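Full entry
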Amino acid sequence: METTPSLPALQAFAGQELEWVKPKRPKNHYVLQASDGQIVATLDRGKKSATGATATGNYTLQRQGFWRQRIVVESAQDHAQAVFAGKTLTVPSGETITCEKVRMLSSERVWKDASGAPLLSVRPSNWKATAKVVIEPAGATLPELSLLVLLAQFRVVLAREDEEAAVAASVVSTAAVH
């Protein structure tokens, strides 16, 4: 797989809290930063998809479907696809990774392998499309770690966009009633 030399390997940050932040410019650009400010991944949201970059490669992420939505993550290097639907990510090897809520009324999620070992913990902000991420020890050995980290943030961005659209629709419908 082709590498992106300007970014450090995600595995080097296992056990550390990383944070997805949104710089002021460009508008839909997000960076995953270590505590020292070092950028370890990027995600750029376009109109219909997003592109992400890590040390191990570049990916395209796209939400598809209406009633049965799914997210397809495609590697720019070998065009291998992973598909996230419901709570399950199926990676190109056929293995599955699940995404579960940590607590009932929490937005925090943990991604687990088939044996139930935690791979990645994600705690989204309540106010913006950012999140704190911890790569768990089992996640550091995962070949699909890059696509998992990018997918987790893409889901945070999509959730924020969906919330904003719902609020805008309710404001419009409320204004129409009055």
Summary: The longest strand covers residues 57-64. The chain has a mean pLDDT of 88.
